[in-house]
Amino acid sequence: MILLEEPYISQTLVDFLEKTKIPILSNNFVRRTLSTNSNLNVIEETDFIQLYRNSDYPKLYTVSEYALDWIYKTLGDDKLTEKVSLMKDKAAFRRASSCIYEDLCFLEISYANLAEFDISTIALPAVLKPSVGFLSAGVYTITDKIDWENAITDIHRNFVRQANSFPDDVVKDSSFILESYIQGREFAIDLYFKNFDPVIINIFEHPFSSGKDVSDRLYYTNKVLFDNYLSVFTEHISRLNNVLKLDNIPVHIELRVDERNRIVPIEINPLRFAGLCLNELHCHITGKHPLSYFFESTIPDYTSMWNGKENTTFCFSIFEKPEEVNDKQLDINKLKKLFHKHLEIRAVNNSKLNILAFVFSETETSDQTEINNILHIDTLHLLKYQA
C-alpha cells in the first residue's frame, strides 16, 4: 500500500506501480496528476483504510512527509502514529535514544526564544535545525557568535517563508533543536525492518563542499563503500532498534561516522526511503526498484549486486535553481558536460521545488575529480541565459 503526495514522484516509480499493482490511495494529488493512468491500482480512501486494517501485517509506504498528516488524522493506527511521531521529531528522538548516545549534547529552543538565547553557553561547533524538517530546510552550522546571529536573521527573513511551502508536519518552525556538530563522514541509508531486524537496501555517502555546506547536492555509492559499511550499519541499527522497536516499516536514516568510527544518527525518516528519487539510484545498479524488497519482504543479493561494477561509483546529483536570476532555464548540454557518463537526467519543472534537475551518473571509483566538480559547480553556469 502506498501514499503518493507532493512534492514529486518519478516516472520510474509510476512504472513500478503499474507493474506491481500495489494499492494506491486516491487523494487529491493522485487525482490531479495520475487521473488518466488506468494501469494503476488506485482505490478510494474508505477501501484503502479497510484494506489496511484487515491486513495482519500491512505494508505502508509514503513518498514524502506530505502524507503524514493523513496518517495521523485518518488512518487510525495509534501505534504507527506514535512510532512515526517519535522519528520525525528530532528532539523526541534524541531524548528516546540518549541511553545510546550519552555524549551527544542537545537543547530544544522555541522559535520565540531563539533571539534571546545566549550561544556562548554551549560548546561550538553546533547545528541549529527545526525539530521537524525536510531537504535541509532551516539547517545552520554554528561555529561562532557571528554564525549564530546570521542564522537568527536568516530564520526571521527566509526560513518562515520556506516553511510555508511545506505542511506543518514537515517543517515545524515553532521549535528548533541545537545540538553538537557531529564531525565525520555523512551517510544516507535506505532499509526496512523484517522481524525487527534491519534489511539494508541502499548505502550512500553524502559529501559536502565545505564544513558549512548543508546542501543535498550529491550522494554516491560503490562496492567498496557498500561492503565496508553493510555489517557495521546493520549491527548499529539493530542496537538502535532495541530502543525504537520498529518492525515492518521502511525508513531512511542519515548518520555520521567520526574518525573514531563512532556512529551517530542525524535523523530518521519513517515510512519511506531516500526522497526525491535518490533511492532509485539502486535501479541503475541492480535493475530492481528498491521498493520491491520491502513489498516482497526480500533481501538484496549483496554478493552479486556489484558484479561487473566493482570499480564503478554511482552518483545522484541535485542541481538547485540559483537565486540570483529570474530566468532559470536549464541548459541540458552544459549539464551533460559535467559528467563522464550520465545515466539519466530528470529535468524538474515543479513550483514546489527549487530544483533544476536530478542526474544519475557513474564514474571510476579511483577518480574523485568529477565528484569534486559537481560539489563546487555554481548552478548559475548551467542556465541557458544568464542575467
Q: What is the averaged pLDDT score?
A: 91
SSE pattern:
EHEHEHEHHHEEEHEEEEHEEHHEHEEH
Number of helices: 12
End-to-end Cα distance, whole Å, is 46 Å
Q: Helices, strands, pairings?
A:
Layout: E1 2-3, H1 11-20, E2 24-25, H2 28-33, E3 42-43, H3 45-54, E4 61-62, H4 68-75, H5 78-88, H6 90-96, E5 106-110, E6 126-130, E7 140-142, H7 145-163, E8 175-180, E9 185-194, E10 197-205, E11 218-221, H8 223-244, E12 250-257, E13 263-270, H9 281-286, H10 291-296, E14 312-320, H11 332-336, E15 341-347, E16 355-364, H12 369-376
Parallel strand pairs: 1-4, 2-3
Antiparallel strand pairs: 5-8, 6-7, 6-8, 9-10, 9-12, 11-14, 12-13, 14-16, 15-16
Helix pairs in contact: 5-6
Explained architecture:
- The chain has 387 residues and is α+β, with helices and mostly antiparallel strands.
- The chain folds into four domains: 2-76, no CATH class; 105-180, ATP-grasp fold, A domain (Dna Ligase, domain 1, 2-Layer Sandwich); 184-309, 2-Layer Sandwich (D-amino Acid Aminotransferase, Chain A, domain 1), CATH 3.30.470; 311-387, Alpha-Beta Plaits (2-Layer Sandwich).
- Helices cover 30% and strands 24% of the residues.
- The strands form five sheets. It has a four-stranded antiparallel sheet, with helices on both faces. A four-stranded antiparallel sheet has the order 10-9-12-13.
- β2 (24-25), α2 and β3 (42-43) form a beta-alpha-beta unit.
- The longest helix is centred in the middle third of the chain and has 22 residues, at 223-244.
- The chain is globular and about 55 Å long.
- The model has no long low-confidence stretch (mean pLDDT 91).
